[in-house]
Amino acid sequence: MTVEVPVKKLSDYERFSKEDVERILELGRELKGLRVVHVNATAYGGGVAELLMTIVPLMRDAGLDARWEVLEAPMEFFNVTKKLHNTLQGAEIEITEEEWALYEKVNEENAKKLSLDADVVIIHDPQPAWIPNYLSKGTFIWRCHIDTSTPNLKVWDRLTSRMGMYRKALFHIMDYVRAPFDKIAVEFPPSIDPLSPKNKDLTEEELEAVATRYGIDTSKPLITVVARFDPWKDLFSAIDVYRVVKSKRNVQLAIVSAMAKDDPEGWIFFEDVLRYAGTDKDILFLTDLKGVGHVEVNAIQRLSTVGLHTATREGFGLVISEMMWKEHPVVARPVGGVKIQIDDGVNGFLRHNVSELAEAILLLLENPTLLTEMGKKAKEKVRSMYLSTANVRRYLEVIKSVVS
């Protein structure tokens, strides 16, 4: 399925990073008319879809013929690829021969169904990773958005044994790189779109409306976690951190999430977290089931006092950059790409266990000047490194390297 994307103009991003825009336009002139197609698992829910909704139109504005294709697959396939995702992050889960057969079948079928006639095909994550095996021509790049630093090697070896056709493999950080990609790997952090509904500036009236609609008490501090309902996000620990802080300060906790189409396990985990939270009225579950879309997430982040992220595995964690962009420090575990976004003690805190995370949040709540200073430094870190223009520039540089 081809995804329709909005029109976006690079000129609108010049005020954030003029240097990146100029470099993109320069590369665009060299690559003008080149056909590039991105392939991923879903058009909605999760960071990859959000990234592509900006990357594809900006590539078009730079002069490339860029498109976005999404897999067509039954729910059984996504049950398998969720297991695949978890094993690549280290889980000891068995993937049966029948499940491998389904995975292969869906990849082969999509190689025929999708519109993949292009000069460069960029495959995102493991779900469509075998598609190039069934295409007669093309230059292929694999973009990995997950933490593969300690994978289940049995699954990793089987998956990658049929991925020898890729010219480049892009990982958030080099800690994730393993054979057979060590010679073609590129460090490639993702980005946020400062003009998207999730990150654009909002008026006071818009913020007040969201606070009223979702029962956010603006008179007391708000700790916010934005994460999918996934075991790796460890939302139980987020609730534990809140409870420690709550014992000393009158605070609220917002757990903000969207239920992704390619994550059937998420619904089960959602119910588990709800039960763990109990009847505490200061724990707010704000999801798309209650009408929370991108603008609402933006408003909730802006209404927040501090961000919290308790994931035990994290490919990158764009929600960290989103919160930092709103001038709020984030307290998080130092895992995956989180630890390159947060400079400990400068624009947030990196801590390991519940008591340490809670202590860091209390330190910020008790020192308003420190909270403000860290928030300003957080926004500048994102502006300089993790905006869409930097991401598009990196893509065009990699594309140029494989077609030259």
Automatic annotation (TrEMBL):
A GO MF label: glycosyltransferase activity
Keywords carried by this UniProt record: Carbohydrate metabolism, Glucose metabolism, Glycosyltransferase, Transferase
Source organism superkingdom: Bacteria
GO terms classed as biological process: glucose metabolic process
All residue ranges annotated as the Trehalose synthase N-terminal domain in the record: 38-177
Name under which the protein is recorded: Glycosyl transferase family 1
All copies of domain Glycosyl transferase family, residue ranges: 214-380
Record-stated family: Belongs to the glycosyltransferase group 1 family. Glycosyltransferase 4 subfamily.
Keyword 4Fe-4S appears in the UniProt entry: no
Subunit note: Homodimer.
Alphabetized InterPro entries for the sequence: Glyco_trans_1, Trehalose_Metab_GTase, TreT_GT1
UniProt cross-references to Pfam families, sorted A to Z: Glycos_transf_1, TreT_GT1
Species for this entry: Fervidobacterium thailandense
